[in-house]
Amino acid sequence: MAPSESVSLRGMRFHVLVGILPHEQTHPQPLEVDVTVWRALRSDDGVGGSEGDVVDYRDLYEAVAARVTAGPLRFLEDVARTLVGDLLSRPYVRRARVAVRKPHVPLPGPLTYAEVVVDSGRPGSDA
Fold first, then answer.
1. CA distance 92 to 53
2. 55 CB neighbour count, 10 Å cutoff
3. Which whole number is the average pLDDT over 3-22?
4. What is the average pLDDT across 110-121?
5. Which residues contact residue 18 at a Cβ distance below 8 angstroms, ignoring those fewer than 6 apart?
């Protein structure tokens, strides 16, 4: 297997419309997102590299922010799957993992958050 590296952004927080209940569609609430992307290294030893060999954190953040703030969101599963697809569309990404958390879930007991995780690689990659 070729050398690889991963870059993660953890705990991105957005205040958005998310959910299928009537109050969730009219009152924004917190949504947390973690992303990790993997890519193959260009050099065999994985040392050094040029500016073109690094992942731009701003690009990852902007991709997530653009998607989750674009409009009302319904299901966490859909958000996570769509974000993985968005990240995999970047030429340098061969695998992506997205965790989407909703801290304020209307359940009858204590709960820190509900979370959906999607982890997928490009077709034909070793991911």
1. 9
2. 18
3. 93
4. 96
5. 24, 29, 31, 72, 73, 74, 76, 79, 102
> What is the distance between the alpha carbons of residues 37 and 127, in angstroms, rounded to a whole number?
11
Query: Would you state the torsion angle of the CA atoms of residues 5, 122, 84, 95, taken in this order, to the nearest 10 degrees?
Result: -10
Number of CB atoms found within 10 A of residue 11's CB: 8
Taking the model in full, what pTM does it have? Answer: 0.86
Cβ neighbours, 10 Å, residue 43: 11
d(CA 95, CA 66): 20
pLDDT of 45 above 50: no
Residue 56 neighbours by CB distance under 10 Å: 12
SS3 at position 123: coil
Please give the C-alpha separations between residue 115 and each of 39, 40, 118, in angstroms, as whole numbers.
25, 28, 10
